[in-house]
Design goal:
This protein is an all-alpha fold. It is built from 16 helices and no strands.
């Protein structure tokens, strides 16, 4: 099952996160209309986590999981571009004679930096979310075989809602009692520690179950397009006039879940989301996300050499081009190579394209 309209939303989320990190001086960041979105675009990471849980359930719920192939596919999905980003940062530090924190580098190489407060955003700072994603990938087969396929759907739903609720209560309680500052141990523990985000992935899983057994059977309808519009307006209003809560650790699942479900059912009524170009943008979105920092440190020298004015939009165009090149010449070939058991011979064609999760 392919839900290409969801693939494009990855691009939107990734671009907004780039604006959040490096586009603070742009018109979008200063406008009273768009600034609530740009200045809180880091919430797109929670959307990634929920969407990842959703599409993983869609992809694997009806299959007998081959553990070896599953882990090869997951490794192939994220590590080529991830390792490339780390090597770019390491090379940059060597060229400029910056002191290298080898402990941080090793933690990043094994994608476990988010487990160690103080190191979560070390080296390539966006890699903390990939460290969490690896944790999700490791846990998913366990949940699939020992929970989702053994218990009644109502028990699964109630259990995950309970886990999500407890996580939110824990997060907000300690945010107001234990939290000290953005650069403290408490910040990394509450905002980056993998277990704090597990409920978002599980919510995505149960959303996938709900889609497969309830929503999909109702078929497609123009109603879902209207519902999607209403939900997006509601999301915007929440960002513009936020209540006294923190949305960072998955609280916006209350809107992200119905948005994902609505998007899953508007393929025919919103063909722009499923066009080849839109899907292509969604496919390169991972590169846009993970390479945003390496490109920003290299781009001034590149622009100076080719005579292009240095600025955010030049950087953004450069990032998209490099992400596209990475997708075609690094990610796709290595995905096929790794998924084929680290063998170049007899590579299955197309078996790693449009891989969800």
């Amino acid at each position: 099952m392919k839900l290409n309209q969801l693939t494009f939303t990855r691009f939107i989320a990734a671009i907004l996160i780039v604006f959040f990190h490096f586009g603070n001086n742009t018109i979008l960041a200063s406008s009273s209309i768009t600034s609530p979105i740009v200045k809180q675009a880091n919430l797109g990471v929670s959307y990634f986590f929920i969407l990842s849980g959703f599409v993983m359930m869609i992809a694997y719920s009806h299959k007998k999981l081959d553990f070896k192939q599953y882990y090869l596919n997951r490794f192939a999905r994220i590590f080529p571009a991830y390792f490339f980003s780390l090597l770019l940062i390491l090379l940059y530090q060597i060229i400029h004679h910056f002191p290298i924190n080898w402990r941080a580098f090793l933690l990043n190489i094994f994608a476990i930096q988010a487990w160690f407060p103080g190191y979560a955003t070390s080296f390539n700072f966006t890699g903390w979310s990939l460290s969490i994603e690896v944790f999700f990938y490791l846990c998913f087969p366990i949940f699939l075989h020992y929970f989702y396929q053994r218990f009644h759907k109502k028990i699964i739903l109630i259990s995950i809602i309970l886990v999500w609720t407890v996580t939110q209560l824990f997060f907000h309680y300690f945010l107001h009692t234990f939290y000290k500052s953005d650069s403290s141990f408490s910040h990394d523990l509450l905002f980056y520690f993998p277990c704090m985000h597990l409920s978002s992935f599980l919510v995505g899983n149960v959303t996938g179950i709900f889609y497969l057994y309830v929503v999909e059977k109702k078929g497609h309808s123009d109603f879902y397009q209207l519902l999607l519009f209403f939900l997006l307006v509601l999301l915007y209003l929440l960002l513009k006039y936020p209540p006294p809560v923190n949305f960072h650790n998955g609280l916006l699942a209350i809107l992200f879940v119905p948005i994902i479900l609505s998007l899953s059912l508007v393929e025919k009524s919103m063909p722009i989301l499923t066009s080849k170009f839109s899907v292509f943008l969604g496919e390169i979105s991972y590169g846009i996300y993970i390479l945003q920092y390496p490109v920003v440190v290299y781009s001034p020298a590149i622009f100076k050499r080719v005579g292009i004015p240095d600025g955010f939009y030049s950087y953004l165009l450069c990032l998209c081009i490099i992400s596209a090149l990475s997708y075609f010449f690094l990610e796709q070939p290595l995905r096929r190579f790794i998924s084929n058991g680290f063998r170049w011979n007899n590579l299955p064609k197309g078996n790693t394209k449009k891989t969800f999760g």
